Amino acid sequence: MIDIDSRYKEIRKHFEKDNTDTALLDRVYQTAKRLHEGQFRKDGTPYISHPVEVALILANLDFNVDVVSAGLLHDVVEDCGYTLQEIKENFNENIAQMVDCVSAIDNAKYKYDADDLFEDENFVKSSAEEQTFKKLIAIGKKNPMGFAIKFADRLHNLQTIECFDYSKQLEKVRESERWIIPIAEKIGSEHFYRELQNECFKIVNRYSAKTFLEHYKIYHETNKDNIEALKDALNVAFVDTDIKEIKIKNVREYKVYNDLKSIFPNENIGKVSQGQILKVTNYNIYCFYNNEDSKQAIGEVLHVINKYLTDKIRIIDVKIGRFTHKLYFQLEDTIRNKYNLYVMTKNAYTLQKIGTLDGQVDSLIDDENLDYLSSRYIKVRTRSGEVKFLPENSTVLDFAFKIHNDLGFGFKYAVVNDSKTKQPPFVKLNDGDKVEIIVDRDEKGKVKNNAQLKWLAYVNTELAKKSLIKYFEKILKD
Fold first, then answer.
1. Helix (H, G, I), strand (E, B) or coil at 305
2. pTM score > 0.85 for this model?
């Protein structure tokens, strides 16, 4: 049985080492412990173990006392009848807002919105789920730390989900892949994006990937001494340089398998060998420097590797990171282990892990067009230069509805990138396009409605589809 108090002490240590006052955190823990007393998880463990583990995930990522406190309290409104007002009065408004962000809408309190095509009074649970995640996004855009609590909550739930029926596990994976992972990706939270992806991968492939996961585990266990020896060699080589700390971390299972698929596209996951695992990158090396001159730090790392470490490791490629958007180096050692080497400050590493949680998320997440979450996005400019975000494969008609319903319904043609060619409504947009929408107007200057039923085949965003369906539904009723 887990010693909950010991786990809480692990949380406190993160703040005690910086002499941070933990009085608020202690009061929060005692409150959460009292409120969850007598509650148990489906696997039989005391329920309080879950919020403590969520808080520990957040503390390990160096979030502050308020965020960790919200992690401890994240289920008390939903499961204990403790109110947001009580959290605000007994602790503070910031914690209350973060807890509100992750508290689900009660099915019994669900309010059916007849104007929303994606809600149905006959499917209360699904519609309440939709509203819950819309609330998460709306509040999270005001207080992005709420996203981190949701990520940590879902991560721990996925890690401890085996006691549920497999169908229930797959349902949680589907929900995670539809809502939570796309948010983590949009705000660039690499740690949560990769950890959540990995847990979903292991659940979906629990049976088919058993051999692959065993090979992955054996590979890393038998390679431990080699990795430790390399780390020791790196520490010695960089002892008198600007590089002050070095980390080596395993690449997650799902990423290793995805990389293998790019080399062996027809390979069955159940037949992946240890030899194949060796063909892709399995480790990330992080070299942390203190000064502000990144070029100097990178140059110093390359110099040291090429001068002192050629008998242990060599550079084989240079690439641009998906989350960092900065270059990294691919390395290979003498026994063919492959590494990605990142040179960055400790602060940049923290930002890379947690993402854009500084309040600047409005342009990244569009709660009016939620299919944007699960899509790659493109940036499209209006005639005046204002940037709008749209999912890939959006058309000029999608763009028109994005600007305003009048432009959508009044669409006549589009001008793309100042071309003299008139573009029809089904033309797809590319990242960076500049678009002007031309509409028809009557003699009073009012926009004419040009909507046609076939336009439903031309749009790809939920916003445009919703507007057109509502319009044609009204015509049919009339």
1. helix
2. no
